[in-house]
Amino acid sequence: MNIVLGVGGGIAAYKAALLLRLFTENGHSVTVIPTAAALRFVGEPTWSALSGKPVHSDVWTAVEQVPHVRLGQQADLLVIAPATADLLARAAAGLADDLLTNTLLTARCPVVFAPAMHTEMWEHPATQANVETLIARGAHVIPPASGRLTGADTGPGRLPEPETIYEVCRHQLEHSGSPRGPQAAPRPDPEGDYSGWRVLVTAGGTREPLDPVRFLGNRSSGKQGYAVAARAAARGAQVRLISANVALPDPPGVQVETVETALELQAAVQAAVGWADLVVMAAAVADYRPATYAQSKMKKSHAPGHEDAAPTIDLVRNPDILAGLVTARGTAATPVIVGFAAETGEPGTSVLQLGAEKLARKGCDLLVVNEVGVDKTFGQDENTVHILRRNGQPQVDAGPAGKEDIAQTILDVARTVLG
Ligand code: CTP
Questions:
Q1: CATH 3.40.50.1950 domain locations along the chain
Q2: Distance 42 CA to ligand 1 centre (A)
Q3: Which CATH fold would you assign to the domain 198-294+308-418?
Q4: 218 classed as catalytic
Q5: What residue spans in the chain does CATH classification 3.40.50.10300 cover?
Q6: Which of 259, 322, 343 has the most ligand 1 atoms within 8 A of CB, as the residue to mutate?
Q7: What pTM value is reported for the model?
Q8: What gap in Å lies between CA 330 and CA 180, rounded to an integer?
Q9: What is the CATH number of domain 2-175?
Q10: φ/ψ of residue 368, rounded to 5
Q11: How far does the centroid of ligand 1 lie from the alpha carbon of residue 143, in Å?
């Protein structure tokens, strides 16, 4: 694949050299476009030696090849690491004052930004507004990691590890079947009824590893949660999606973070919930995880006794993330919290009865109840749900209908709770 690696002028530029190596070692052809400021941190010989290609920052070199248009048009993925506050601002404003910003305007492929800067700069409303603009146009922004910064200070702002950025890029390449980017992303409706609201969605199913090759998982495909995220973005919301093991393309205009386990999902939700006005917990979270993780593959021959002895797997409880959100909210009005209930029903107890009990137990504002089974709901494109509300308000039924339509109804009902 043709990768363009844009490098901004920050101390983390040295980590981009490791990212470049990951791309080339995995068979990708990489063109590096550093900004002039980036070259003060890591010089041109490093980038050209590691990429095996000429490296330029301005639009005045090799003009006959029209590089400011060609590089963007030919790229399969454009990744900017580190993306400084200045670079995010120039990208958001659509400036074209060097080769990298020109390339950003001509690219129609997935674009990934990995911001890195001091915490104050990252949290400044100007930077946050620029990030939101880029996400709304279809870019993927990897939230910076927390930890030690350049000096003695710590906080969010560190460039994520090159392996993490590489994984996000690999995911984007694998799941962007059709050319995406600014032109392909439907514009969020600024007049939409979710304009100004921040929506956090979880989707997919957690995996709880037993050893490097095995896990306990579930059948959730993530389709319903992805549909909620996509529709909320189209209705004008700022949307963050925490995705657990889903093989679907990122919804346009949605910031996606991937997790694997329930504990990772809990950490990601806790980090984002302070931002959200509405939380939609569509993910199927494993209630239990193996008590121990085997560092190497569990072998039959390691079973006590003889080869035919079946191992016993001890499980421990995972936290109930949804219930934790309700407890942490206390008496505050926001965030509005929507839970999902996957029920198969039981002899003598209907799916709806089980749902009503779960709504009371979890204390969320809405509970989307659906009947599940091997060929019901999971992985299907259609769904039938009952949306239960607190305080005895009548339930809202939706479906059978496509998961996009079901998502619209869930958002309609949640919007009435948001006020
Ligand atoms: N959920 C959660 N944390 C868990 C389990 C579930 O946050 N450890 C959330 C799910 O995201 C969903 C809701 O709780 O929104 C209900 O999930 P479900 O699996 O139906 O319910 P459980 O809590 O597992 O209850 P039960 O085992 O009794 O069905």
A1: 2-175
A2: 49
A3: Rossmann fold (3.40.50)
A4: yes
A5: 198-294+308-418
A6: 322
A7: 0.65
A8: 41
A9: 3.40.50.1950
A10: -90, 110
A11: 27
